[in-house]
Amino acid sequence: ATWIFRGDKTKRPKVPAWVDAMRSDKVRHVFRADDAFLRACGSVAIVGGGLSAAHLALTADADVHVICRHAIREQQFDTHQDFMLTGDNARRMNRGPTKRQRRFASLDSYAERRRLIQTERRRGTVPAAVSRGRNGLRYAIRDGRVRWHKAEVAAAREAADGRVALSLTTSDDVLVDRVILATGFGTRVPGGDLVAGVAHRAGLELGPCGYPVPDRRLRWHDRIFVAGALAELELGPSA
């Protein structure tokens, strides 16, 4: 049998420390919130500034607050498009890998590859079409349909009326019925225990960051291939 380890579905959502301290069922990560969570909700705070946060802000039938450390950042992808060029597309275009791809491939140190991945990724971005396209986020903010708070959550508690009270680093307070975290995934190795266990038992190589080190065909073992985030050390930031 041949096994394929995928890293995209096993990553754990990134949850701020104040959420664990509060322990409220009115605060959920976007990947764990269903439609019922927002149904009959009069107000919602969305923590984060990326594409998921933007989509939620524009579609929520509620009074919307977005809490983000920075202003809207426009970029088509989370990483430069040069990293998106596949081998098949390169051959069809009669060209080789891009300069960025060649630089990544030239790094023999997997610690250096990890540093480059972290540098090249720009999280918390939205495409121009979502930001300032028709009915875009910038216009929703301008018209008062979405309130954008350039801040972080300093503390949170459940108010006397059952709503969630958020204290921001700008000294502002936001009182809402629900809070949705659009904070992406954590940086832990997807399927960490499984990956580490297989590597130990089969004597397979891991980088200093704990991610698999596959070959150019993404083969980690004669019968194991990796994909998604688990292929980062070979594919680069776009994995």
Walk me through the structure:
The longest helix is centred in the middle third of the chain and has 11 residues. The protein has 10 helices and 11 strands. Strands 2-9-3-4-5 form a 5-stranded parallel β-sheet. The protein has a 3-stranded mixed β-sheet with strand order 1-11-10, with no helix packed on it. A 3-stranded antiparallel β-sheet has the order 6-7-8. The radius of gyration is 21 Å and the shape is globular.
Strand order of the largest sheet: 2-9-3-4-5
Helix/strand order, N-terminal first:
EHEHEHEHHHHHEEEEEHEEH
Number of DSSP strand runs: 11
Low-confidence stretches: none
Subunit arrangement of the protein:
single chain
The end-to-end distance, rounded to whole angstroms, is 25 Å
Shape: globular
Radius of gyration: 21 Å
